[in-house]
Amino acid sequence: MAKEKKKLTAAQKRAKKEAKAERQKKYMWVFMNGKQVRVKRPPTIDGIPVDEYIEQNSDPIWRHQNGKHEVLHARELVEESETEDDVPF
Questions:
Q1: Do 70 and 59 have their domain in common?
Q2: d(CA 29, CA 81)
Q3: For 3-42, what is each residue's pLDDT tens digit?
Q4: Which of 20, 18, 24 has its CA nearest to residue 39?
Q5: Is 1 a domain residue?
Q6: Cα angle vertex 88, ends 84, 89, to 5°?
Q7: Are 61 and 71 in contact (CB under 8 A)?
Q8: What is the pLDDT of residues 47-85, one digit of tens each?
Q9: How far is 55 from 75, CA to CA, in rounded Å?
Q10: Does 15 reside within a domain?
């Protein structure tokens, strides 16, 4: 006959649940070559990817000093198009 499984105590269940939640925060599942693999999640700030956070919250001087010229140029283009689309009322 099969060996009977012992039930986990409340503390063991809690520890198992906390460990699972921590793993889910740290890793994510993706498909590579037809297989499901676990990879580390990209770093985030307030739930937003770091690059996007920098684009939203950095000023032009910081971007220039840190070599983010493509972001600086892209933002200028967006601002120009917004000013052209404004209706003068």
A1: yes
A2: 39
A3: 999 999 999 999 999 999 999 999 999 999 999 999 999 9
A4: 24
A5: no
A6: 150
A7: no
A8: 888 888 888 888 888 888 888 777 777 777 777 776 666
A9: 9
A10: yes
Residue 26 structure tokens: 């740290």
73, 88: one domain: yes
Strands 48-49 and 44-45: antiparallel
Spatial CB neighbours of 27, under 8 Å, sequence gap ≥ 6? 38, 39, 40, 41
Identify the pLDDT of residue 47.
Answer: 85
Q: What is the pLDDT of residue 73?
A: 74
DSSP the chain: -PPPPPPPPHHHHHHHHHHHHHHHHHEEEEEETTEEEEEEPPPEETTEEHHHHHHHH--HHHHHHTT-HHHHHHHHHHHHHHHHH----
Cα of 46 vs its chain's centroid, Å? 9
pTM above 0.85?
no
